[in-house]
Design goal:
The complex is a heterodimer of chains A (77) and B (154). Chain A has helices at 11-38, 47-66, 70-76. Chain A has 77 residues and is mainly alpha-helical. Chain A has one domain (11-76). In chain A, helix 1 (11-38) packs across helix 2. The radius of gyration of chain A is 17 Å and the shape is elongated. Chain B has 154 residues and is an all-alpha fold. Helix content of chain B is 71%, strand content 0%. In chain B, helix 1 crosses helix 2 (46-63) and helix 3 (68-83) crosses helix 5 (111-129). Chain B starts with 15 loop residues before the first helix and ends with a helix. The chains are: A mainly alpha (77), B mainly alpha (154). The A-B interface holds A 1, 5, 11, 14-15, 18, 21-22, 25-26, 29, 33, 44-45 and B 10, 13, 16, 19-20, 23, 26-27, 30-31, 34, 37-38, 42-43, 46.
Chain lengths: 77, 154
C-alpha cells in the first residue's frame, strides 16, 4: 500500500466519515426491515429491500452530511 | 462457470441481531482506529497500522462486554488454529501447554507465547467441558439414587 505523509487529514473529517457511513448503514437496515414488513414477509429481508432502502437513505444521508457544515452557515450569514 | 442454486433453496442469510451487531462492531473498530491514529507518528509504517488495527479490534471486543482474558484467549485460539487448522486437543497440545506454563513460571514467556498459551488454555477448557468428557455415567447413577430415595420417602 503506497502512502504519502505530505497529506494530512483532520481527525474531525475522518470521524465524520465513519459516522456518516454508520448512519447510512443503520438507516438502510431499518428501512429495509420496514419494507419487508410492508410486503407481508417481515422475517425475510432481501437484497431488493436493501436496494430500495439505500436509494431512500441516500437522500437523508445528504441532509445529514450538510447538517452541521460550517461553510453553509457562513454562506447563510 | 456459474452454478445454479436449486429453486427451493433460500440464499444464505444472517439473523437481524447479527446484522446489527456487525454494523456496530465495524463502527466501533473504525472509531477506535481513528483514536489510535491520533498517536501515530507522521512516518508510521504499515506495521504500526497493523498494530493499531489489532488494538482497535480488541478494544472493541472489550467495549462490547467481553472479558479481557476471554479476548486474549480467543485471539490465542485463532493463532493456534491458524498454525494447524482443524486442531483438536491432544497429547502434543497438552505438552506444548505445559512447556509454555514452565516458561511462564521461569519468566521467559514471550508476548506471542502468552497469546498461544491463552489459546491452548481455551482449547483445553472447551475439550474438558465438551459433552463427551462430562462424567455423565456417575451423574446418571447419582440422579437415579436420589430419585429412588425420594420415591422411598414418599
Amino acid at each position: 500500500m503506497g502512502h504519502s505523509a505530505d497529506v494530512r487529514v483532520d481527525i474531525d473529517a475522518v470521524t465524520a466519515l465513519v459516522t456518516w457511513k454508520s448512519s447510512f448503514a443503520d438507516e438502510v437496515a431499518s428501512r429495509a426491515r420496514q419494507l419487508a414488513s410492508a410486503t407481508g414477509k417481515p422475517n425475510r429481508v432481501t437484497l431488493s429491500h436493501y436496494r430500495q432502502a439505500a436509494s431512500a437513505a441516500i437522500q437523508s444521508l445528504a441532509a445529514t452530511i450538510l447538517d452541521g457544515d460550517p461553510t453553509l452557515d457562513d454562506k447563510a450569514a | 462457470m456459474t452454478t445454479k442454486r436449486p429453486k427451493s433453496e433460500l440464499p444464505p442469510a444472517v439473523v437481524s441481531f447479527a446484522d446489527d451487531w456487525i454494523r456496530q462492531c465495524i463502527r466501533h473498530v473504525e472509531l477506535n482506529m481513528v483514536d489510535a491514529a491520533r498517536d501515530l507518528a507522521p512516518d508510521a509504517t504499515e506495521s504500526d497500522l497493523q498494530a493499531a488495527a489489532v488494538r482497535a479490534f480488541i478494544s472493541t471486543l472489550i467495549d462490547s462486554g467481553m472479558a479481557r482474558e476471554s479476548a486474549l484467549e480467543l485471539l490465542g485460539q485463532f493463532v493456534v488454529e491458524h498454525k494447524s487448522p482443524n486442531v483438536a486437543w491432544n497429547d502434543a497440545a497438552n505438552r506444548r501447554r505445559f512447556a509454555l506454563i514452565d516458561k511462564d513460571i521461569q519468566g521467559t514467556l514471550t508476548s506471542a507465547e502468552r497469546i498461544e498459551l491463552a489459546g491452548l488454555t481455551r482449547l483445553m477448557r472447551e475439550h474438558v467441558d465438551s459433552e463427551e468428557n462430562l462424567p455423565m455415567t456417575g451423574a446418571r447413577r447419582l440422579h437415579r439414587q436420589l430419585m429412588n430415595q425420594r420415591g422411598d420417602s414418599d
